């Protein structure tokens, strides 16, 4: 469903994402794990057609994310790391706007918006301006926007970063529900317990390089580490940092 072929990004002389080769299968929840500055957001922005790759390609459902971004957006729901809304639109109006941008009629957009506001516990805030929403509410509104057109793929950049435990659990439950409906999910995070709860498979990216891929058990075995994902993650990223670079 998602196919990376030598995708890379160079800023000046700095390799932010080194040639990335990876396949994410249909229906999979794939965790893209890495510390700050590893290259997660840069990779996701290339998937969304926001950044131009320096080399290589990424395809979603057979479509090239760089040359066919509009078609890709029809199939994909995207939650940016910091969702930004028009501050002086109300929650309801934002969903209405996003739905109409996806081509739904005014009536259908209103119906879809109302359904998602209810599903995401935002009914009571529907008439409030987004500028007054808490971070947790903004992430939920962002997810509602991402889901409004029934996408087959969700691409989420740090969806629970900065949320309190209740808001974080809430978002994770909604993601599990989407996964249960068969949505393919590509989620970046540096929060390892979320990866343990949600992901079928993970990839660990460090200094722009994918240093391990597999199920958590496979990665533990490969790293010859037992214990928590945190232990495995620290071991793998320490080893990658110690390896000489060309
Ligand atoms: N426009 C830019 N120009 C130069 N360097 C950049 C630019 N954008 C990002 N970088 C660098 O590229 C690297 C990867 O950044 P990126 O934002 O993709 O990391 P990340 O894994 O998403 O980290 P975080 O969790 O901190 O957001 C970082 O070292 C960052 O400083």
Automatic annotation (TrEMBL):
SUPFAM superfamilies (UniProt xref): P-loop containing nucleoside triphosphate hydrolases
Keyword terms of this UniProt record: ATP-binding, Cell membrane, Membrane, Nucleotide-binding, Transport
GO MF: ATP binding; ATP hydrolysis activity
Presence of keyword Methyltransferase: no
Domain of life: Bacteria
CDD domains: ABC_DR_subfamily_A (cd03230)
InterPro entries membership: AAA+_ATPase, ABC_transporter-like_ATP-bd, ABC_transporter-like_CS, ABC_Transporter_VariousFunc, P-loop_NTPase
Domain (ABC transporter): residue spans on this chain: 2-232
Pfam families membership: ABC_tran
Matches recorded under SMART domains: AAA
Classification via PANTHER family: ABC TRANSPORTER ATP-BINDING PROTEIN ALBC-RELATED
Name by which UniProt lists this protein: ATP-binding cassette domain-containing protein
Species this protein is from: Rugamonas aquatica
